[in-house]
């Protein structure tokens, strides 16, 4: 294989994984949006709410970890890697959402209440770390 062919193939793989990763982050964002009152993008953009921003950012970081681990574990098999990335990313998003709902029910940390607070709250920090931890756990499980 020539250098040009290798570069073209690698660039195509990068673009494909990036597209799947971006789609998963969009899905993750809208799942977080579903779990919060109001329109999350409005709360972040207009109200500049630090709790909503931290929760959304940590969810995106968690999805990014899962995508990176899926790419790593694909071993260069593009089709399998893309399928695995999509499936594992969706599983990670579901687990993050379930964790948020469990924290609301069991621990009493309500996402709905947090995004209505104008100041950064300890509960938002806790949920953000939970998002990243779930992303890391899922990522390691993929590898």
From TrEMBL:
Topology of the protein relative to the lipid bilayer: Multi-pass membrane protein
Family annotation (InterPro entries): DUF350 (IPR007140)
Cellular localisation: Cell membrane
Keyword Oxidoreductase recorded: no
Principal place of residence: membrane
Residue ranges of the TM segments: 12-32, 52-72, 84-103, 123-142
Keyword field: Cell membrane, Membrane, Transmembrane, Transmembrane helix
Family (UniProt): Belongs to the UPF0719 family.
Name of the protein in its database record: DUF350 domain-containing protein
């Amino acid at each position: 294989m020539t250098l040009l062919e290798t570069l073209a193939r690698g660039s195509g793989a990068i673009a494909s994984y990036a597209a799947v990763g971006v789609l998963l982050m969009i899905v993750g964002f809208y799942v977080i949006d579903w779990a919060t009152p109001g329109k999350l993008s409005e709360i972040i953009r207009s109200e500049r709410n630090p709790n909503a921003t931290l929760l959304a950012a940590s969810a995106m970081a968690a999805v990014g970890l899962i995508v990176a681990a899926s790419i790593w574990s694909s071993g260069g098999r593009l089709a399998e890697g893309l399928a695995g990335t999509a499936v594992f990313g969706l599983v990670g998003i579901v687990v993050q959402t379930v964790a948020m709902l469990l924290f609301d029910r069991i621990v009493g940390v309500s996402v709905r209440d947090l995004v209505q607070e104008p100041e950064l709250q300890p509960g938002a920090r806790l949920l953000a770390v939970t998002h990243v931890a779930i992303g890391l756990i899922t990522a390691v499980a993929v590898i």
